[in-house]
User: Fold UPF0342 protein FC56_GL000690 from Lentilactobacillus senioris DSM 24302 = JCM 17472.
Amino acid sequence: MELKMADKIMETATELQKELKNTPQFEELKQAYGNMKADTKSFDLFKDFQEVQLNLQKKQMAGMEPSDDELKQAHDLASQLEKVPAITELMNKEQAVNQLLGQINQVVTEPISDLYRN
Assistant:
């Protein structure tokens, strides 16, 4: 039975996912995450920041404005994160993965860009 075009694209995306896991960028991110996670204080701070960030995003998606206290808490946590070498290393490695994903996105969406250019 012939695969539908959408199924073929999803199959290709699954292969791309597997390939991404084998890139140096992802391997370095995984290593940096493991290093950060091994330091309990760093990991707890990281989890706290993720929770605050998620709550802010939920509020914004619901059309609500975050309170001044919530914004201050997020800002204070972000300032603390920047002072922790394991977390800054993780953020740098995440940025490298995001750059790779951006390049992949440009390739994948090129037909759409070309369509609108012509």
